[in-house]
């Protein structure tokens, strides 16, 4: 049996712009109630939206909230279909940001993102933009300016935006849970796990009849199939200041003693004795791993105390040449991390540092498990200073932005150990260009 809505006469002809504007306003009313009763900030924003849409206050009070265009009959829906998903999301983000993006609002927006085919990175950019605006401007002024920008121009553009809702409604509220992924650090970490690796270098030093085995370790990430980026001091630690007092005292590197190894994130790394097991790794000793390239060495003479005497020794400078590339065999399933920000990074931007802080010492289950550290950018010059600390084991790990893109490589700790220094991703791109050219 046909419903009353389906059988009632077609609505009388009216101004299509006014009709679309009213539907838009009803949808905004519905979103404002997703997380409960409408609050004062949302009410102020919705009133600004009402004025921009040309709906008078008396008429607005007669309009009921609309949770979905699926509630409308085919005669009540606007015609035409255009794809303006990002613009619609930008408007809805402004309403959702009024009370700080409640979980129910985020879930509602995520379902819409998936249905419209808007990418996760675009969704994250829109959400972060709304959050940043809410933190830096007064509520009333920010929302008024944002709505003015969004609603400026031809009112006909609103028809295109509203028609997109029609397409979504016709598709229905389908089960999109597998496609909908939260634009959060947790999801970004999950996306990049298949790019991460733990790297270790085992080597020997000797002096007279003494010999000692040492180990350096850090993080890395795939930048192209079969190629990993990491720090030079992880794969050639003898060039750096930490070992300089030993070399100044007469120790030297044993030729042929260097073995490098790599464990992908989630792989077992420790043996039964609780120590790193190179037999479980891709190893240079078995031809599965090799040093492909390093950034140019920049050596400087420094003074070191040896037996209460000062001695000079050349060490690698603390600069942005602390980069190396490793060639890896048998890692076709690994996914390269995307390099370079979509938008240039700025001070106070949120970032996430991925890697293996403290190295194998915290592999309690015996597997190489990433331990992410969120922070913000504090300063941008030749390097990036971030509030996420770079500790032993983090070296060589990727620094990623809210779009899930690598914008830097962890290299060392600042004098204040609560902060870390990262090399800009552009330096990795330059090293890749020198190594592979256009290939």
List unreliable stretches of 5+ residues.
1-13, 166-183
Q: List the domain count as a whole number.
A: 3
Mean pLDDT: 80
Please report which band the strand proportion falls in: under 5%, 5-15%, 15-25%, 25-35%, 35-45% or over 45%: 15-25%
Structural class: alpha+beta
Succession of helices and strands: HHHHHHHHHHEEEHHEEEEEEEEEEEEEH
Helix coverage percent: 25-40%
Largest sheet: 8 strands, antiparallel
Shape: elongated
Cα-to-Cα separation, first versus last residue: 65 Å
Continuous helix count: 13
Q: How many beta strands in the DSSP annotation? A: 16
How big is the Rg?
28 Å
Characterise this structure.
It contains 13 helices and 16 strands. The chain has 439 residues and is of the alpha+beta class. The protein has three domains: 176 residues, no CATH class; 134 residues, no CATH class; 87 residues, Trypsin-like serine proteases (Thrombin, subunit H, Beta Barrel). The strands form three sheets. Strands 1, 2, 3, 4, 5, 6, 7 and 10 form an eight-stranded antiparallel β-sheet that branches. The longest helix is centred in the first third of the chain and has 17 residues. It is elongated and about 95 Å long. The N and C termini lie far apart (65 Å). The N terminus is likely disordered.
């Amino acid at each position: 049996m046909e419903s009353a809505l389906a059988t009632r006469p077609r609505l009388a002809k009216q101004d299509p712009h006014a009709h679309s504007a009213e539907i838009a306003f009803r949808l905004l009313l519905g979103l404002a109630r997703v997380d409960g009763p409408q609050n004062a900030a949302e009410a102020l924003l919705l009133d600004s939206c009402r004025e921009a849409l040309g709906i008078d206050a008396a008429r607005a009070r007669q309009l009921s909230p609309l949770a979905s265009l699926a509630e409308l009959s085919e005669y009540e829906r606007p015609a035409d279909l255009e794809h303006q998903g990002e613009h619609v999301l930008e408007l809805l983000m402004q309403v959702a940001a009024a009370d700080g993006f409640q979980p129910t609002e985020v879930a509602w927006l995520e379902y819409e993102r998936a249905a419209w085919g808007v990418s996760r990175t675009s969704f994250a950019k829109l959400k972060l933009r709304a959050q940043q605006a809410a933190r830096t401007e007064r509520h009333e002024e920010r929302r008024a300016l944002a709505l003015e920008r969004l609603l400026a121009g031809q009112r006909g553009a609103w028809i295109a935006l509203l028609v997109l809702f029609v397409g979504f409604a016709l598709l229905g509220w389908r089960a999109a849970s597998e496609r909908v992924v939260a634009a959060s650090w947790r999801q970004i970490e999950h996306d990049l796990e298949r790019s991460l690796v733990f790297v270790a270098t085992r080597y020997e030093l000797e002096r007279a009849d003494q010999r000692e085995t040492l180990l350096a370790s850090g993080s890395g990430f795939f930048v192209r199939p079969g190629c990993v980026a990491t720090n030079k001091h992880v794969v050639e630690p003898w060039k750096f200041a930490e070992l300089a007092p030993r070399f100044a005292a007469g120790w030297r590197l044993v030729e042929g003693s260097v073995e490098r190894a790599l464990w992908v994130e989630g792989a077992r790394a420790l043996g039964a004795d609780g120590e790193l097991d190179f037999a479980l790794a891709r190893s240079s000793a078995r031809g599965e791993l090799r040093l492909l390239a390093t950034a140019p060495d920049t050596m400087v003479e420094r003074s070191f105390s040896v037996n209460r005497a000062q001695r000079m020794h050349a060490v690698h400078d603390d600069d942005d040449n602390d980069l190396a590339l490793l060639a890896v065999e048998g890692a076709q399933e690994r996914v390269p991390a995307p390099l370079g920000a979509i938008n240039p990074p700025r001070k106070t931007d949120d970032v996430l540092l991925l890697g293996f802080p403290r190295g194998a010492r915290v592999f309690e289950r015996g597997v190489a498990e990433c331990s992410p550290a969120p922070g913000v950018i504090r300063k941008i010059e030749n390097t990036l200073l971030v509030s996420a600390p770079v500790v032993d084991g983090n070296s060589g790990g990727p620094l990623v932005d809210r779009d899930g893109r690598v914008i830097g490589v962890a290299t060392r700790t600042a004098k204040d150990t609560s902060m870390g220094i990262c090399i800009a991703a552009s330096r990795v791109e330059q090293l890749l260009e020198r190594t592979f050219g256009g290939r």
